[in-house]
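Quick board copy: two proteins, each given as sequence then tokens.
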Amino acid sequence: IKKNSVVLDIGCNQGKLSEYLVEKKQCKVYGIDETKNCNFIKISKYFSCDLNKGLPDLNFNELDYVVFLDVIEHLKNPEDFMKNLYDKLSENEKVEVLISTPNISFFIIRFMLLLGFFNYGKRGILDKTHTRLFTFKSFKKLIENSNFKIIYTKGIPVPFPLGVGNNIFGKFLININKFLIAIWKSFFSYQIFYKIKPKASLKLLLKKAEEKIKLND
């Protein structure tokens, strides 16, 4: 995310990323989450919103980035949400959407299934609050069917420092995981990350055609 950008942080949680963008990159940040009482002093505006019911009213055309990290798997109908998001962003040529979700085809989950286990828990890929699960292929299909194009793909390693501490050993394990991801992304990635853009809408194309005609006249 470039400095001095306008960012919409969907699912901003406690606002740590939003505050980082404001403090370190001088961004103007809007935050969305379901919590009603929040003290995000450093962001421009906070919206309390149930994403299953849609998005709040704001100027989507001024946005440079939409940050949508580890949220879509919590929604009841991700397809409807992504189509709604496209409708909001379809006239914005500059916007980029940063989106991520857990990878259900991660090798540990595959081994668990091989042994006949599939147990939800308090956190991780099988967090009990997750309503939808994705592989790289199914997530790509969801995005492309919602009229977005993928411009960057990345496999995210396991957050080992959360378990073993932010130390040499934790960093060593992450580097090993990154190496394995480079070999077989869909098998060794803990999470899926895409940078996407909305495809040009018919309304935007007509608007650009009209502007070109005016310039020629």
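And the next:
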Amino acid sequence: IDTVRDPLIVLNEDLTVVSASPSFYQVFKVEKGDTINKHIYDLGNHQWDIPKLRTLLKKILPNENVFNDFEVKHSFPNIGKRTMLLNARQIYRKNNQGKLILLAIEDVTERKETEDKLKIWANRDELTGCLNFRSIMGVLENEIVRSKRYKKEFAMVMMDIDHFKKINDDYGHQVGNDALVFFADVLKKSVRSIDVIG
């Protein structure tokens, strides 16, 4: 247990903590004295009383010896909002001494945040946050289909920034980028919530 990199908790059948890995204490900012022999839902002033964790330990795991990558999102008072993958195993003891539950916790918060950002930026311009060319063309195709089906018109406006090349040439690309961001922000504040800017 001491060599496991990810947080790991060993539980009795009654869900009291038998032991935990050093990384569990480090990641979740809890003390050993406040963990061992405590019920898992009581840990950290009841911050581990998580509905999805209860679902895993009380409903799913009793019917399955092994359960992998059970995603849980929870906001902890001392470390903030975390996304975790729970991996649980039932280990049966010899001589009918009951069983232990190994609960391994992989903190994937940063990975999930990166994935979410990549999904956003796959469809948006990184500088302005507006839809990129591919996405705006997809919106346009959908609007054309809807327009024909429901016999309703829609409007598309194309705008240009006068003398933009001169701004870039005279003041540099950073000022040009600042001008684009400013222009995009003005547009966002000027249109309705149902309008799309690309």
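Board note added afterward: The mean pLDDT is 87.
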